[in-house]
Amino acid sequence: MQTYRGFVLVILLVLTIVLVPSVTAQPDKNKDIATQMINAINERDYDLLDEIIAPNLVRHCQATPNLNIRSLNEFKEFLKEDLKTFPDSHITTEMLIAEGDLVAGYHTYSGTQKGAMGPFPTTNNKADLKFLGILRIEDGKIAEMWVEWDNMAFLTQLGHFPQPETTGE
Q1: What is the pTM of this model?
Q2: DSSP class of residue 158?
């Protein structure tokens, strides 16, 4: 009986040594995938997205309710269309937090409006938009994303709405 207990303890110790690092390393791997996506977007390297985004990607965004992205190819087309309006666009990651299969990021999207954006004409104004994104990683690829930002702040920076009045306080 003592030998059996000793054997079980050794097996548990080995499993702990082998499995715990992979569990704790997963959030860091997922943050690396999120960083790779941002870098690929900034570098316009859309082929790299094939390696880190699932073909059946789903994007959720209340800020763009009429834009449905349900695949990697639709996401790439969205990015290419965005470049027509903001050819100098760049995303800066302010922070990333990962837990389990999720990565949350707080970012700044910077760009100069050089083309029409839906009903909004070109202004040649630059905007720095703060936005939040959450990615769900499945089998080493981004399977789902949630993206949210303040449309009014963005449109105001671009000159489509007047600046808020300030009080003399």
Answers
A1: 0.82
A2: T
